[in-house]
Amino acid sequence: MERAREHEGERGDAGRGPAAVGTALELLVHGVGGTTPEEMLGDPRTVRVTGDETAAVYRRADDADAERRPDVDRDHRDERGRPVPEAYVWCNLTSGNAARALWLLLLPFMVANLAHWMRPTTIHRQRTVRLYGLIVRLVGLTLTVLLVAAACEVALDLAAWQCAGTRACAGRHSWLGFLSPVASDGGWWSRPGRRLALASLVPAALTGLLWYLSHRTWSAYESQQPISHRAEPDEESHRTALGRPGFWYGRRLVARLRAAHTAAGFLTVAAALGGSALRYDRRHDTLALVMASRLLEATILVGAVVVVAVVCRRGRTEDRLDQELDRTLVRWLPAGALALLVLTMVYACWSRPGWRSAGRLPGDAMFGALALAQGLLVIALGVVAHVLYRAHPDTRTAMRGLAGPAVAMLACALGGVMSGGVAQRVADWLDGPGHPMAGPPVLLTWQASVIPPLLLVLFVLVGRLARRTWLLRRAETPTVERDYPGEPKDTARTLRIARTRAMAALTDRAPLVVGITSAVTLLLGAAALVGAFTTDDTPARAARGTEPLLRGAADTAQALGSWLIGVGFLLFVTWGRRAYKDAAARRTIGILWDVGTFWPRAAHPFAPPCYAERAVPDLTWRMATWTRSTGGRLILSGHSQGSVLAAAAAWQLKPSVRRRVGLLTYGSPLERLYGRWFPAYFGPAALSSLHREVACWRNLYRLTDPIGGPIRLPGEYGPQVDRAPLKDPLAYGRTKEHPLPAPILGHGDYQADPAFAEERERLLVRLRPTLPGPRPGDGPSRSGDEAG
């Protein structure tokens, strides 16, 4: 009865005239890197049908009013026999603006956010699932504290405490002259507490900037509401959360996490600023200041507990469209932390005539606590992930369910490289001959010293992969010759095709690389933490008095690691600066974000914005409104990352609409990347349900494609979706159809293959409605609009 009512409603929709019956539309969604509507539609004359400058749907100018033109046939096809093509262009969501190149500096936050979505598949154990999300959110919180702590180390310790407190260093940097007790002749700002209070404005401003960027990007990219529909039980519909009404609208969680992380940043600055003054006052037993210090310390501790409680409170609300906001929490938690920071600045500025800066501020305790907490959280996350995987094992899942903990470890390592790199480079810049500075905390030096052993392991791993690729190329050579029978033998051509196939297969070895890298990073990080706190000295000094070989290795590791960690940070800055000026480099960074920012911000609010929270509602609204107004056939055609957006949008449709949509994917990473790395959302059960719920689905792939691959549905579903691998190149040598050498296409230009048009035509045939003769008094019948 419900389906009959829907059909009756469709017959009464405005704009559904005789010319609209049987309308065929192909909605094209491009992949990584983006393109232009002119390239997608193959016509220099295009018009924007709906959307804005950020993301929009385009048509050829001749097809702008295709549904209303009476001079076209009932299928509304163009002169080449194709359905009316529409192009959804979303590349400006990730790479359209030069300022977005600065998002590269938020890479650790993005990687941590990815770990949230990599949990193994499970139907039950919901408490364990919530525990998994909680641990990842705590890892994200430690990354925010680490970033702000690194800014405090640079501004407070290296600049205001060590350099400004030394005659030689302050003399080399005139901009620090007014902070020096000697150069400024004991001016007001020359007191250590006041210097630190002034320098604390730098990390406080960084925290405010992160809050502003998170708030602004949410309003610009992620505030689009999905189409409204009722939630359906997983066992009766799709076995994935991607179809839930509130999945692509995480406003409440992002706002709450943004408030907590902002407050954590301000509290970190307050702790770094007040810590040195607290220790001085306790040593000199000034009663009033001691009481104030104890009260201030207790307040900071209470604030930290509140922040952790807010982060632990709850996760995402996906079963409904959550429009509410925790306004009191969102407004007053950051404001309270900022007020506490202002009070700490006033406390630090209090006159202490005997206070002098010497050595370094005790930052080892903060960095050591962060490193220990991150290591323990990653280990706990690994245990939880293993429990979830054992409940529903799948051999195709990357790293047997441990991909999330491994990626979380890499996020912590990236954060350590960036924080240690900026501290090391600033220390080298400020330091000079004469009276050398004490430098950054010992732990950061130990962490830098373990980079050379890590790179050595990676070099061995790369060598092993190179040898495997060479062997695979040899094995592919006879296969290539069999794929092109009767062709004159061309050794160079054969080897080039075989090498391309072997290189494309390296994608499937990514779990090995990530697993070994993260495991070695965890072990070396633990060794650095133990070495720093057992010796309380740098590796080179700790190795004095040992064997010459060990001493030389320690000296080399420390010097090379210090250089490498500094160069690593400079590469981040240089790449971001180049991308700001160079459109090609900006496009490359955009490709990274296309893959990394598909998922909503569920673990870290300062991660780059999720473009899918705009793109998926766009596609869903377009498909739902078009099919309702025309009742026509719709092919959703997605390439590469566009196929992932297409699948996510299809899951958001009502079942009655989803059964009228055909899905055509090509160069698709749906199973090869997303199904293996995000099994809870794109695993075999989810993809099988998508195949059952859409009208029809075909997938094209090549063996030379390093990104796309087969969908690999189990049982009889596999051949129904996957076509046999397409030939690449289309011709081995020169032929009548290809008089010039055919290129190896790899991941691109799938539409140039004749198989593309064949599969699209088959989908249209399967979607073709049956049109029985009208009954007296009735309009056109739609009883068969869901055939196929």
TrEMBL record:
Protein known as: Integral membrane protein
Keyword terms of this UniProt record: Membrane, Transmembrane, Transmembrane helix
Biased composition (Basic and acidic residues): 1-14, 59-80
Residue ranges of the TM segments: 131-151, 196-213, 259-280, 286-311, 332-353, 365-389, 401-423, 443-466, 510-533, 557-576
Region annotation Disordered: where it falls in the sequence: 1-20, 52-80, 766-788
